[in-house]
Amino acid sequence: MPTLFDAYTFGDKMTVTNRIVMAPMTRTRTSDGDVPNALMAKYYAQRASAGLIVTEATDVSSHSKGYAWTPGIYTKAQVDGWTLVTEEVHRSGGKIFLQIWHVGRMAHTSLMPNGEAPWGVTDEKASESDVFAHNADGKLAFMRASPPRQIRTEEISELLKEFTLAFKNAKLAGFDGVEIHAANGYLFDQFMNSVLNTRADSYGGKTPQSRTRFLLEVVDAAIRELGAHNVGVRVSPFGRYNSMPADPRVEETLLYLCNELTIRKTAYLHVLYELMPTGNMQDSEFNETHLSDDLVRKIRNALSATLCSIQCTEGCRLGRSPRVCKVSHTPEVSGGAVRSRRCYFRRSGE
Ligand SMILES: Cc1cc2nc3c(=O)[nH]c(=O)nc-3n(C[C@H](O)[C@H](O)[C@H](O)COP(=O)(O)O)c2cc1C
User: Fold this and answer.
1) Which of 167, 264, 282, 342 is 20 to 30 A from 209 in CA distance terms?
2) Which residues are tagged catalytic?
3) What is the pLDDT of residues 301-324, one digit of tens each?
4) Which of 25, 284, 329 to mutate to test the pocket of ligand 1 (most atoms within 8 A of CB)?
5) Is 133 a domain residue?
């Protein structure tokens, strides 16, 4: 049986030197203009001994922003900033995927261009969730997400163009691939939730096809720009983070998505195995809710891509410089069944 320290090839094409994947973690450390900087390059290069790094979530455009000081990938300065990061990681022998997101309704007017309302799949507010933004005194604070306005159907094709540009830019900046953030109550998760998504157009919540339509259009755009073996998707089935309503159709949506990703031969599906707290991250206890073995088995049956369940870090709940990287075993590592959920990996020099 392979160990975590053996090499692994995603989709028969992209090889990593070990099976440890660093989970995406928002660090809010950018320079003005949401530009990645030398500090971020150092941070990622220090972690390049992981087989694969997935970056912090990165905005596809100025209206996709839900946290102050998160990076973007839509301006030349941002592409140049990310180039610093990829060069340092590659110099240190690592591989790095850019996590790309749009937060949908999880934003605040103070973060949006011209103070406009956040872009929601519907106009329903995330009434119990906060975002990290500047308050009326200009100080950074957690504040309730603002009421969104529903994205118009014709705006969805504009959004698709923005994602396409982001994928082109990711390639320009030297990333090995991209991970599309479809988890944790952000835009794609909002589309996929059959209760929240009450839209009446072809992106509405009635069928698994329509719920996943936008995500799969974006996946196809990523594949066109980067190749299927350089594209991953992150989901959080049953997650209630960011005021997501309980959805009785989660399994149907998920298994449909698995089949579609299999057809497209994407590199991996990254599943949040241990779910995020229902409330806000800063004042909630992470509990031990996790996906059932039965569901994980069904995902594996429907999916030919790698199934990867990676968690964040113990340290990241305690501070901003995690020392211990907690990684869940993938079924590849444990021989087809999830036997041991996680192991601990300590690296020196951090
Ligand atoms: C401070 C912090 C920032 C995070 N940022 C992201 C992010 O940018 N993208 C993402 O998909 N998940 C993000 N997550 C979720 C983690 O990747 C991970 O799934 C979660 O923390 C559960 O793992 P854990 O139990 O080891 O902490 C973040 C979590 C924390 C605590």
Assistant:
1) 167
2) 186
3) 898 877 776 544 333 332 222 323
4) 25
5) no
Is the sign of the CA dihedral 319, 235, 35, 242 positive or negative?
negative
Beta carbon of 290 within 6 Å of any ligand 1 atom: no
Q: Note the pLDDT tens digit of each residue in 165-184.
A: 999 999 999 999 999 999 99
Select from 222, 106, 215, 115 the least CA-distant residue to 164.
Answer: 222
| Ligand 1 atom closest to the CA of 326, numbered from 1 | 26
Q: Quick check: CB of 189 below 6 Å from ligand 1?
A: no
Cα(49) to centroid of ligand 1, in Å? 19
pLDDT, tens only, 243-273: 999 999 999 999 999 999 999 999 999 988 7
On whether the CB atoms of residues 236 and 275 are closer than 8 A, the answer is yes
Residue with token string 């390059």: 41
pLDDT-derived band of residue 31, with 50, 70 and 90 as boundaries?
very high
In a domain, 139, yes or no: no
Domain-located, residue 123: no
8 Å CB contact between 129 and 243: yes
Ligand 1 site, residue 99, Cβ cutoff 6 A: yes
201 in a structural domain = yes
CATH number of the domain at 66, please. Answer: 3.20.20.70
